[in-house]
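Need residues for this backbone.
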């Protein structure tokens, strides 16, 4: 039986590329997003769920548990971005971003990590951002959520290291995905999704006695 990876936000951009990388390397991949239309192929197990809600997280957990297979890798990649500033962003922006970018990872991790601890095996990746360490003027609640996600990654690392469960935070800069459609900037100003996926795979591929705690990936010419 193939090992199993779970990738949230796994139907486009970075998430889909990560899922594809792991499938290429012999994994089966549970991919989750609000819509999974058009997601099919060998090794892909699509699940439609809105992970910004607790019921959506439970839908995904119920499906994973129904497989009766251990989860070897969890990639908490679900996330949304709304530009704005704390003092003037729309009411409800904070709650939406915290629920989607942070609470989804918190509840999904809690639902899966017990088995990893019992097996003394597993790797959890948190898709943070350079916004996790840099306060952007127009970042608002997005920056808050990404700072929080990095904090959760560091707490998890301390909690789980004695259980042989690895935790890695990925902090990519601007990556050329659908969110940048219409930009006038040249491609070379961006990371490629494959850069992030290859970094995740490289971190996973280390020996059992080693872990990469945090990976910062920026465009060669710097942040945008």
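Answer:
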């Amino acid at each position: 039986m193939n090992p199993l990876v779970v990738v949230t936000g796994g139907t486009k951009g970075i998430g889909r590329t990560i899922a594809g990388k792991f499938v290429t390397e012999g994994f089966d991949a549970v991919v989750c997003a609000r819509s999974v239309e058009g997601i099919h192929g060998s090794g892909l197990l699509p699940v439609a769920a809105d992970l910004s809600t607790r019921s959506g997280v439970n839908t995904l957990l119920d499906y994973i548990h129904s497989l009766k297979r251990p989860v070897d890798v969890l990639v908490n990649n679900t996330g949304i971005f709304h530009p704005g500033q704390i003092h003037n962003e729309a009411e409800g922006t904070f709650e939406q971003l915290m629920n989607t970018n942070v609470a989804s990872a918190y509840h999904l991790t809690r639902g899966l990590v017990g088995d990893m601890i019992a097996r003394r095996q597993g790797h959890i990746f948190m898709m943070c951002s350079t916004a996790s360490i840099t306060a952007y003027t127009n970042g608002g609640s997005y920056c808050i959520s990404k700072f929080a996600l990095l904090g959760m990654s560091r707490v998890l690392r301390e909690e789980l290291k004695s259980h042989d469960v690895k935790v890695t935070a990925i902090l990519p800069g601007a990556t050329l995905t659908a969110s940048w459609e219409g930009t006038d900037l040249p491609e070379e100003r961006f990371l490629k999704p494959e850069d992030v996926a290859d970094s995740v795979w490289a971190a996973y591929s280390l020996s059992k006695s080693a872990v990469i705690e945090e990976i910062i990936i920026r465009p060669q010419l710097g942040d945008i």
